[in-house]
Amino acid sequence: MTWVLDTTVLLYFGRFESLWIIKHALIDPKLVVDEVVAELLRPPTAVNQLQAALTDGWLRRHPLSSDAELASLEALHQQRPRLGSGEAGGLAACIANGWALVSDDQDARRVATTHGVPVTGTIGTLLRAIRREIIEVDPAEALLRRMIEAGYRSPVAQLANLLDCR
User: Fold this and answer.
1) How much is the mean pLDDT over the chain?
2) Does this model's pTM top 0.85?
3) Is 107 helix (H, G, I), strand (E, B) or coil?
4) What pLDDT, on the 0 to 100 scale, is given for residue 41?
5) Which string of b and e fits 92-131 if b means at least 16 CB within 10 Å?
6) Is the bond preceding residue 63 a cis peptide, omega within 30 degrees?
7) Interatomic CA distance for residues 60 and 30, integer angstroms
8) CA end-to-end distance (rounded Å), the chain
9) Residue 82 DSSP code
10) What CA–CA distance (Å, rounded) separates 90 from 39?
């Protein structure tokens, strides 16, 4: 499965120099649409992390160019005008190509679900990383706390409770 990363996920992992978690937790190809690259202007640590990931090649830039992608983008703009350009671009790529979306935006996640697009976000990525033994629970919890302190609106306060349930 190909993963299309959205701005918020890149922003918070990048802010804390933790894009390596995404690199290893989501083992399949990872893409970012041009609209997301255009949105991610700060903080410098996140921008630098994004540029390094693109340069290293584990994250690839994907311009929307196929007729199906452009038609999906136009339909999303008409049906969901409140979606940001990054969310709409990422969704259009996923809808047109059968890819999965990595986003924390609730509206984008709802749209993805209605289109049958698999979706995960920051919490799902952290849980995958823990289960794949890429990061231990305590450091993942500490990272989540730092993200929350920086403004990330997490649906959960702790990851450990979710690990017990699954």
Assistant:
1) 94
2) yes
3) helix
4) 86
5) bbbbbbebbbbbbbeebbebbeeeebebbbbbbbbbbbbe
6) no
7) 6
8) 22
9) T
10) 12
